[in-house]
Amino acid sequence: MDFNLTEQQKMLQNLAGDFAEKEIAPRAAEIDRTAEFPRDLAKEIGKKGFQGLPYPEKYGGSGAGYTSFVLVLEQLCQASVAVGAIMAVNTVPEEGIYRFGTEEQKQRLLKPLAQGEWLGGIGFTEADTGSDPRLIKTVARRSGTDYIINGQKQFMALAPALNVVLLFARRENEEGLNAFILDASTPGFILREPCDTMGIRGLGTSVVYLDDVRVPAENLIGREGQGFEILLEAISVERMSVAMQGVAVAQAALDLSLDYARQRVAAGRPIAKMQAIQQQLAEMASRIEAARWLVYRTAFLHDQGNSIQYESSMAKLFASQVAVDVTRMAMQVHGSYGTMKTLPVERLYRDAKMTEIYVGISEVHRSIIANRLI
Ligand SMILES: Cc1cc2nc3c(=O)[nH]c(=O)nc-3n(C[C@H](O)[C@H](O)[C@H](O)COP(=O)(O)OP(=O)(O)OC[C@H]3O[C@@H](n4cnc5c(N)ncnc54)[C@H](O)[C@@H]3O)c2cc1C
Predict the structure, then answer these.
(1) Residues contacting 112, CB < 8 A, separation 6+
(2) Does the C-beta of 165 come closer than 6 Å to ligand 1?
């Protein structure tokens, strides 16, 4: 076991920390307030090479690995979860193509994603379900050399700026799902209303209608009916990323709480001197540290070539609980001022709750973990 970061990882961490502090943090409150997707920051994330960190150079990446990826993500999400999450969403099509695509698909579809020229998303969730593939209604019908897709997707992140989507559709008259890379500029891909969510606002999360959308058969990823297997594998990296979002939001809440406790005076002394506040701060720090190392280890295992379906569920379940608990404690430390929009703590509190819900609800992760145990 080696807990030290490499020189390259430290350099990436510094680069990301600098970018987060100078370019993301000053805009975090505004992005949350307007819920407008920050296209320029998404482009900058691509330009800096952050979208390609885990993937080999021959597919447009830098081969820095998943540990480097989560280290960068941690920095970005401490400034704004909504901005950091852009990186996380983009990995789902990248992973799908990297793990299940042909060599030709990796060159044609993974390269521009990893190079940051394209932005990729995922289309699984529908009005009836975000958890159960049996309830997916979007259908892919074969027609000559194409598939024709009809349906409706809910909560599609990055939707206003997407170039491609890893889209899941049911097979016509057959069991199972197919996974496609769909070009978002194809006629029939209709961007509908944004989803006005409580937290992680500004991620461009929207409803999308699919009206006779043609996808060439060469964009089918994996085999016919292999869609759910592809989803589980591809989404593990996003689950690990949401776990890191939980760690980052909790760390940001602890940092604010420490500053506040040092300067806020009650009963004639800074509240940081009170045992009740110290107990909370110690609890927050310990839980964050445990969650952080769970995420780092998950990334390390993926770097070693292991599937992380089990570990990413565990990391997401635990880190999202930590995020919710720690931001609740941070609100308490801040008293009434914590509830005000003028301070960032209430945003962190709202963002933290989202990590328990999106990219698989906690109940589903408990089932995945229990199934493996049993
Ligand atoms: C900001 C944001 C961004 C998102 N981005 C995307 C995206 O880019 N692409 C995409 O496809 N989706 C996206 N989603 C959707 C999200 O991942 C799903 O909404 C989420 O997985 C939960 O699905 P659901 O809302 O349908 O909950 P449901 O599956 O309806 O579950 C509702 C509740 O029922 C219970 N429940 C359901 N199933 C089980 C079970 N098996 N065991 C025990 N209890 C259960 C739980 O209490 C659960 O909370 C996004 C959502 C948000 C909020």
Answers:
(1) 60, 118, 163
(2) no
pTM over 0.90: yes
- At residue 373, what is the residue type? L
Cα(321)–Cα(153) distance, integer angstroms: 28
Which domains, ranges and CATH numbers included, belong to the chain? 7-114 (1.10.540.10), 120-225 (2.40.110.10), 228-373 (1.20.140.10)
Nearest to 59 by CA among 19, 21, 105, 27: 105
Q: What is the rounded CA–CA span in Å between residue 40 and residue 120? A: 15
Our answer on whether the CB atom of 157 is closer than 6 Å to any ligand 1 atom is: yes
The angle at the Cα of 365, spanning 363 to 371, to the nearest 5 degrees, equals 105
User: Using CA positions, which residue lies closest to atom 49 of ligand 1?
Assistant: 361
Q: Is the CB of 123 under 6 A from ligand 1?
A: yes
| SS3 of residue 283 by DSSP | helix
Q: Got the DSSP string for 108-139?
A: IIIHHHHTTSS-EEEE---SS-SS-GGG---E
Which atom of ligand 1 is found nearest the CA of 354?
Answer: 53
pLDDT reported for residue 80: 98
- 213 within 8 A of 88, measured Cβ to Cβ: no
Q: Encode pLDDT of 79-109 as tens digits.
A: 999 999 999 999 999 999 999 999 999 999 9
